[in-house]
Amino acid sequence: MSNIKVRFAPSPTGFMHIGNTRTALFNWLWAKKLGGKFMLRIDDTDKLRSKKEYEDVIRDNLTWLGLTWTEEARQSARFDRYNEVTQKLKAEGRIYACYETPEELEFKRKRALSKGLPPIYDRQALNYTQEDIARFEAEGRRPHYRFKLLPGEIKWNDMVRGEVKYEAEKLSDPIIIREDGSFLYHLPSVIDDFDFGITHIVRGEDHVTNTASQVQMFEALGGQVPTFAHLPLLTGKEGKLSKRLGSMGVSELRAEGIEAMSICSFLAKLGTSEAIEPYYDLQSLADSLDFGKIGRSQPKFDEEELKHLNTKLVHSLSYAQVQNRIEGDEKFWDAVRPNLSIVSDVNLWDSICHKVVTPIIEDKDLTDMAADLLPPEPWNSETWNQWVGEVKAKSGKSGKALFHPLRKALTAQDNGPELKILLPLIGREKTLKRLLGQAA
To answer: 416 - beta bridge partners?
Structure first.
């Protein structure tokens, strides 16, 4: 076991959407590839919005995908530790109190922009006198706290973006504690990563600026700065994140019958220089992971493309891989799987072919005629076309008027699997009875 350790740190303030899932997957695959550890950290510092139901779904989805963890932590249990570090950094002058109101800060921001200057905080709070602070306190103001960035270049070698550089003087000192005393994301996350020995942080590129500040936070704690990888954010196929994609999660895809390995295969290769192909186990997918092959442009998540990949994967699944969740035997599975989009569809096929169906007779003259023209067995995939060709010629009917009554008689369904494949599986005896209106 190597000393590589990564973490996935969701906030249980909503359901885990597909972008979060991708982040979790890349972390897990990286740990798996290098023989490291994957940690689940619940970032539940937002007491009002964090809910157990969201956390339960996050855990359930990770487990279903196979992204199991060996260690976990909960931020709400670590406030004493955060306060301890905060006091130390205050004493060292790295955390300082600010008394500006949100309105005053917004005014400063707009004024800087109007002068063509970057809208960064001017550090006025570092010049407060005791009289200033007493006046603010008398007005009922409560301070928020910022982390003081040291001047100079901040740089790191990003596994996706290459070398990244920031000038600290061009960044605002980040607010780390709100007026109500609650922590923002920045410092607790660094303290946790420091305490738990996280070696690699894989997350979305929306955190790049945060990383610049957090590099100095790691240094202030005396810790090793982890290796970072910032993934381009997913967009919809139209170039923007649709409302459905922004909220869609594994739960919805799972309910639609998408396989766990289809989701993992798709998310792992989307936006890379590699072909999107189905992988059948997470170890193989992990072995193939190469951050150098991830492009810089935002990948477009196309749900139809995912479904197409899922169909391809389903067609390749052996009976052994699905037997615990389907009806029907191996011979039946092998016969129908080339025609399935999702695994559970096999159960509809099985019920039509092997269970009693009460036929729905829409056109008795047509189905009686079809029964008279029914050929003898053996049947194969050509039997349907030959038989229906004769029924069409004799009845003069075509299109929906021909096919719909036959489907309703044979399957009692408005639509479903192709009848030319179903017919040999149903067999002549059942077919004849159903055409004549008898349950069979």
So the answer is: none
Higher pLDDT, 235 or 360: 360
Confidence of residue 418 (pLDDT cuts 50, 70, 90): confident
Residue 350's pLDDT band, with cuts at 50, 70 and 90, is very high
Beta bridge partners of 40: 8, 72
Which pLDDT belongs to residue 365?
A: 95
**pLDDT attached to residue 239:** 64
* The pLDDT value given to residue 249: 83
Tell me whether residue 370 is exposed, middle or buried, using C-beta atoms within 10 angstroms of its C-beta: 0 to 12, 13 to 18, 19 or more. Answer: buried
Per-residue HEC secondary structure of the chain comes to CCCCEEEECCCCCCCCEHHHHHHHHHHHHHHHHHCCEEEEEECCCCCCCCCHHHHHHHHHHHHHHCCCCCEEEEHHHCHHHHHHHHHHHHHCCCEEEECCCHHHHHHHHHHHHHCCCCCCCCCHHHHCCHHHHHHHHHCCCCCEEEECCCCCEEEEEECCCEEEEEEHHHCCCCEEECCCCCECCHHHHHHHHHHCCCCEEEEEHHHHHHHHHHHHHHHHHCCCCCEEEEECCCEECCCCCCHHHHHCEHHHHHHCCCCHHHHHHHHHHCCECCCCCCCCCHHHHHHCCCHHHECCCCCEECHHHHHHHHHHHHHHCCHHHHHHHCCCCHHHHHHHHHHCCCCCHHHHHHHHHHCCCCCCCCCHHHHHHHHHCCCCCCCCCCHHHHHHHHHHHHHCCCCHHHHHHHHHHHHCCCCCCCHHHHHHHHCHHHHHHHHCCCCC
Parallel, antiparallel, or unpaired: how do β-strands 153-158 and 162-167 relate? Answer: antiparallel
What does the pLDDT read at residue 242?
Answer: 57
- Compute the half-sphere exposure of residue 83: CA atoms within 13 Å on the CB side of its CA: 7
* Measured distance CA(295)–CA(292) in Å, rounded: 8
User: pLDDT tens digits, residue range 43-68?
Assistant: 998 888 899 999 999 999 999 999 99
Place of tokens 């196979």: 66
What average pLDDT does this structure show over 57-82?
96
User: Which pTM does this prediction carry?
Assistant: 0.90
Q: Are 5 and 198 in contact (CB under 8 A)?
A: yes
Q: How many CA atoms within 13 Å lie on the side-chain side of 255?
A: 5
